[in-house]
Amino acid sequence: MSAISxxxxxxxxxxxxxxxxxxxxxxxxxxxxxxxxxxxxxxxAAGADVPATSHPIPLANVFREDVVGETLTVEQVLQNAPDSxxxxxxxxxxxxxx
Amino acid sequence: MAATTESLVDFDEALEKYDPVLGFEVHVExxxxxxxxxxxxxxxxxxPNTNVTPVCLGLPGVLPVVNKTAVEYSILIGLALxxxxxxxxxxxRKNYFYPDTPKNFQTSQYEDPIAYDGYLDVELEDGEVFxxxxxxxxxxxxxxxxxxxxxSTGRIQGADFSLVDYNRAGVPLVEIVTKPIVGAGxxxxxxxxAYVAAVREIVKNLGVxxxxxxxxxxxxxxxxxxxxxxxxxxxxxxxxxxVNSLRAVxxxxxxxxxxHAGVLEAGQKVVQETxxxxxxxxxxxxxxxxxxxxxxRYFPExxxxxxxxxxxxxxxxxxxxxxxxxxxxxxxxxxxGYSDAEFRDVVNAGLLDAIGETIAAGASAAVARKWWMGEIxxxxxxxxxxxxxxxxxxxxxxxxxxxxxxKKINDKIARQVLEFVLAGEGTPAEIVQKRGxxxxxxxxxxxxxxxxxxxxxxxxxxxxxxxxxxxxxxxIGPVMKATRGQADAGRVRELxxxxxxxxG
Amino acid sequence: xxxIIKLSAVELAQKLxxxxxTSVQAVQxxxxxxxxxxxxxxxxxxxxxxxxxxxxxxxAEVDAIRAAGGAGAEALHPLAGVPIAIKDLIVTVGQPTTAxxxxxxxxxxxxxxxxxxxxxxxxxxxxxxxxLDEFAMGSSTEHSAYGPTRNPWxxxxxxxxxxxxxxxxxxxxxxxxxLGTDTGGSIRxxxxxxxxxxxxxxxxxxxxxxxxxxxxxxxxxxxxxxTVLDSAYLHELIGGHDPRDSTSLNEPVPSLVDAARQGxxxxxxxxxxxVIAELQGDGYEAGVQARFNESLEVLRAAGAEIVEVxxxxxxxxxxxxxxxMPSEVSSNLAKFDGVRYGKRVIPADGPVTIExxxxxxxxAGFGDEVKRRIILGTYALSxxxxxxxxxxxxxxxxxxxxxxxxxxxxxxxxxxxxAPTVAFxxxxxxxxxxxxxxNDVATIPAxxxxxxxxxxxxxxxxxxxxxxxxxxxxxxxxxLYRVGAALESLLEKGWGGPLISQAPDLASAEKEGVA
Lengths: 98, 504, 515
Ligand SMILES: [Mg+2]
Ligand SMILES: [Zn+2]
Description:
The complex is a heterotrimer.
Chain A: H1 6-15, H2 22-39, H3 42-45, E1 63-64, H4 74-78, E2 84-85, E3 88-92
Antiparallel strand pairs in A: 2-3
Helix pairs in contact in A: 1-2
Chain B: H1 11-17, E1 18-29, E2 66-67, H2 68-80, E3 84-85, E4 88-89, E5 92-95, E6 105-108, E7 115-123, E8 129-141, E9 145-149, E10 161-165, E11 172-178, E12 181-182, H3 188-206, E13 218-228, E14 238-243, H4 246-265, E15 273-278, E16 283-289, E17 299-300, E18 307-308, H5 311-318, H6 325-336, H7 340-348, H8 352-360, H9 365-382, H10 394-405, H11 411-422, H12 428-435, H13 443-456, H14 458-465, H15 472-482, H16 489-500
Parallel strand pairs in B: 14-15
Antiparallel strand pairs in B: 1-11, 1-12, 1-13, 3-7, 4-18, 5-6, 5-17, 7-8, 8-11, 9-10, 13-14, 15-16
Chain C: H1 2-6, H2 9-18, H3 23-37, E1 47-50, H4 52-68, H5 70-74, E2 84-87, H6 114-122, E3 126-130, H7 164-171, E4 177-181, H8 188-194, E5 197-200, E6 221-225, H9 228-238, H10 256-264, E7 272-276, H11 286-301, E8 305-309, H12 317-332, H13 354-365, H14 368-381, H15 387-410, E9 413-417, H16 433-437, H17 444-449, E10 453-461, E11 464-471, H18 477-495, H19 506-512
Parallel strand pairs in C: 2-3, 2-4, 7-8, 7-9
Antiparallel strand pairs in C: 1-3, 4-6, 5-6, 5-10, 9-11, 10-11
GO molecular function (chain B): asparaginyl-tRNA synthase (glutamine-hydrolyzing) activity; ATP binding; glutaminyl-tRNA synthase (glutamine-hydrolyzing) activity; transferase activity
Pfam families (chain B): GatB_N, GatB_Yqey
Protein name (chain B): Aspartyl/glutamyl-tRNA(Asn/Gln) amidotransferase subunit B
């Protein structure tokens, strides 16, 4: 039983900013269903008393002193830009709010 | 999204029926030498994309490293806000796509902020103290700067394209979040302004931020909701983004209270949404409603390790805390010799630091107060900004005052000179020189003007000779006219008496 | 020239030092080999970019320093002049870095990865950039946007993945050394199926700065070579603290070369080797199991004490991995949006807004497997699912670490087959993502726990290589080199030479039209 619906996948694709055709959504829904079913047992494996591990080797307080280093030149900054103008990256209109 | 009415309910009427609940998220940019996670310079106003490393640009393969000074500044802010400091805390990724965010996630803190559970005692205009509870203060990074091009207004709406400068991307921020503030009533707008002013004062006092609101060093998001009087359940809130002057904070809260009341009185529902503040009209307009797109998928930042604070470290930092603002105010009031009323006005105007710096630069306490509370405040009001936002430096005031004391210019001309300074014409002395504004106290030139005036007004001269010295005033007008306002009135009086052989 | 390319890195380095071969000759021999076997319809296709000019220039520089003698020559790194291939996930100034994706086609990094800076400082000529599954996501190198790499042992089979290019390059004598990255087995599994050596160092042992992140808490750069000793030299070169990587261990690199040399004596007296009960049997091919069992006998004969260990939570490791990895992927790959670098696609119709440009760019720039993982990770992190998926997976990670801790109480190193099968046919699993994921079942636990692992050749099954994996506690990478080198030397005695010498001769196979 797969909990993941086509609408879920469409929503996830929007969150992930990947445009998907109807056919892709259908295919992805099927594949994700199989994968999620196969790995869902993870959610029952560990009890509430087990702490989460986000970093495999525990370290703490790794800091940098507040000393200025080398910067890129504007040419280097923009060398791979799809589009630029006036030393800045140029992007199409933003319809969303600021 | 339901349409919201724009009909407002008068503020006082609104407050008769509803209790406002406020909440603030204040972002403070730290003035570290480098950015939060990269060793790029943290400098305001440089040429676009010149303070950028591969990390700031989110290039493939880069990794963040935490700026220790930024952590310490954050702890200092937490301590100054009477917060608890986390024994251990970590960074988290806040995921959302926006072109000013190079990685398309912001590195921030989520479940475990560096500082939490604090408070700030905010003094209102009449001296009443209101305690604002602080929920948390967390570390994060700033975004780049977007400039919207084309279209008619230069605003985001209708722009053809935008340009992105990543100089600001990664500048360290501390976001200070209050708990819901209940009970301010009619004083909500005033409290809003006073709270932001107090935060600004603290971070400036700590030396951890330049705290210039006009540069965006301190930025406020103001949450407002209304609940019917006597209710205990909060209403739906709006979040007005980026209200970036003290006056604007006050006005925005006031406007939102009036707007919410209008919506509720019309029998409609307040929409939970972000609002945009418009300084020109002193209104807010609807931004984006809350939606399922606001799923930020926070998770622990795997590229950064936790911050663990020891008691020794905290105490070492606590020892660096400057005098608390309330005590500092008490001390300054005594040092400057202001009356209660004078001092409160200065505090309410948010000009404690400006006046202090001006005194430090060499002005007397009275002179510093005169300028900041007088002409500079007036100009700021006209320009719809805070006095400090005008850009008057202590050096300018000291120089202007020196010119007055040397009798090179009078008060009236000094005010004009200030406007020329703000217009970028140079220093006061330069402007006086360039524009030929020096007071005419060259006795021969003055003498000629006085003789002309006396010749045309023999009746006045007779009165003066009769001992009615106040009649000299009638001569001063024409003399001023003849010297294009550059005569020193005191010297005119002296010369008239001299010419008539009368002992002043 | 043929002889040069068959030398191990250490042997080549000795000849360079002795003046028997110049670095220019060595580089040229490998460039010739690449020209002979890499291109064409049925070429190995290990390389995405060949860096001939720069490699020859670096080689000439090394030769000049050697010729001048004196302190300059003395100061040269032991591997100076020995050519190396770089997985195209690691950024390099002067060569394109694509990550095997259309998204980064032609992208030129303005900075070097830390490991690349070290390689430049040690003056190893870089032959070029090797193929990989797109953004290192896959176990077969078939998910490369630039076409699959072929296994030199059988050109119709996969070379493993994601580092199939680096493994195949080394197996095909196109390079004596290569760099790989290992997030769930991407160095070790290709090593296993190509009959080469691959090491995943302790997490934090090698700087990740400049390795394009797939899953930050799992990724690790490591060496790829034909001998254990060669990997030890390369590992020592690239390892060590890097202030640019906050997860980098601030500890001296252990002496791995010494450990490997000690192992080459073939004596493992007193070494406790733990056989992981959960990583054999069901799902493991008979031929793989047979070679594994033989290896255990060899270890026992060398004096090792073979013990059985149980890691009951390993059965959840694959599931936890396929939640944690895609979660981090979904965030790490968000930066590819067509704003600052890489591909930008303007939608064919409708309004051109940045939102739609990002959506179209990511739709066109990413392949299916990358999209699958991004969507899966977005799901695992999303509101309402986080606790059940990402949160639980991080707990399983704790349980896997506890299993390792308990196992390492009983054993100095653990052992298992590296992969459950030998190299499978190209195209045989591309339609079934889950079947593909199962390839990593034995390698994933090490990434979840951050412990180091090595894969060494363990013989052939039906003519194809089988890999033996050793795992050690975190920071004890040296143990892997000792035990790995011992097994290698003992097995080679039985084979009468390195396993790789049994690989088909690619150049002549091509000429005769035999595949
Ligand atoms: Mg906020
Ligand atoms: Zn914030």
